[in-house]
Amino acid sequence: MEILKRTNEARRIILKSLTKNVGTSKNNLNVGSINKSDIKRVLIIRPNHRLGNQLLITPIVQEVADVFPNCKIDLFVKGNLAPIIFKNYENLDQIIRLPKKHFKQLLQYILGWLKIRMRHYDIVINAAKNSSSGRLSTKFANATYKFYGDDEDASLLYAEDYQHIAKCPVCGLRSCLSKLGVSGFKKEIPVLDLKLSPSELEEGKKIVQNLVANKEAKTISLFTYATGAKCYTETWWSAFHERLKSEYPNFNILEILPVENVSQIAFKEPSLYSKDIREMAAVIANTDVFIGADSGIMHLASSSKVPVLGLFSVTSIKAYAPYNNKSKGLDTGELTIDQLIEEVDKILLA
User: Fold this and answer.
1) Beta bridge partner(s), residue 330
2) Residues 6+ apart with CB under 8 A from 60
3) Which of 28, 154, 195, 282 gives 175 a disulfide partner, CB atoms 3.0 to 4.6 angstroms apart?
4) Domain spans of the chain?
5) pLDDT at 9
């Protein structure tokens, strides 16, 4: 396992070195102007299979649909999550999926790349500026305009937002389009959005009501797991959990369990175990605050529109912090548990 990890890391470093100069958005900015009504088909590229990374492109999909309401959007992704995540996105047309394991499904992998070459797009957008496969596939795609996410003016105009993985492609697109005569962008950058339906939200409410003891009280949802170094210890979670129970004795606490079905608080609270990410999001949407470490489930919570307190210890807050509806990224290396509780208070007691 360690050998595989090192091999993948070496592969990423080599690919990044080879592709850092592949393509540039500047080539598109000296060819006149764009008429919004002429944009009929847009391809958004993010060939990564992870839940969090695919949820983080929901803002750029919303932005394209808002700027070009009559266009159809294709996605170039990896794995099987995108059809679930983008189930309720009306402007979406094709989801071109690469298999997670290239060599085991080599023909499917090749066909995926050929599809983005065979169909002509008005605009292609690389949604992750530092992605080697993203830059290569943007270069390979057949399109009139290609935006690689490398616009220098965007990094200056939107300095803070440009550092965030979800906001960066929106900032880059706005900067490039403004140079091509497009205007009228909304002030706020779209938030992560799973677009849960009323029926999904209602079902989530029923599940929460069946799990919690006090049907009338507010509910705190916890996700105590994360991968690798992002995962906090049982000792840390035990102390934080006890403090939550002490500070909010009349509130419900509901734990959202990972697919591994483990709990860092020893299953001391009612819990939801589900492999259906839309069901999980609908349940979280019916709680009053979500607290968890930086993870795909943290981004899933953010996409459900609930206030999220994201716990960060090793990853970048500026790049990954939740930013919807009172949400905030918290550096647990700098904040005490007292200070974390103060942040919970701002949401639950406001």
Assistant:
1) 311
2) 44, 125, 127, 166, 169, 170, 173
3) 154
4) 15-179, 198-348
5) 54
Nearest to residue 189, comparing CAs of 207, 177, 171, 213? 171
pLDDT at residue 151 in the model = 83
How much is the pLDDT for 104?
84
- Let me know: does 159 contact 50? Beta carbons within 8 Å: no
DSSP conformation letters of 121-188: EEEEEES-TT-HHHHHHHHHSEEEEEE-S--HHHHHHTTTGGGSTTTHHHHHHHHHHHHTT-----SS
Quote the pLDDT of residue 214: 93
So what's the pLDDT on residue 157?
84
Question: How many residues does this entry show for the chain?
Answer: 350
Averaged pLDDT, groups of 10, the chain, 350 residues long = 50 50 57 84 97 98 96 97 98 96 87 95 95 94 93 85 96 93 92 98 98 96 96 97 97 97 98 98 98 98 98 97 96 96 94
User: How many whole angstroms separate alpha carbon 202 and alpha carbon 319?
Assistant: 32
* Edge-first strand listing for the sheet containing 252-256: 271-272, 252-256, 219-223, 289-293, 308-312, 328-331
Q: Which two tokens stand for residue 272?
A: 């939801």
Distance, in Å, from the CA atom of 196 to the CA atom of 304, rounded to the nearest integer, reads 7
Tell me, yes or no, if the two domains 15-179 and 198-348 fold the same way: yes
Would you state the torsion angle of the CA atoms of residues 86, 88, 90, 94, taken in this order, to the nearest 10 degrees?
A: 40
198-348 adopts what CATH topology?
Answer: Rossmann fold (3.40.50)
pLDDT value, residue 10 = 47
CATH no. for 15-179: 3.40.50
Fill in the amino acid letter for 349: L
Residue 55 near residue 304, CB atoms below 8 Å: no
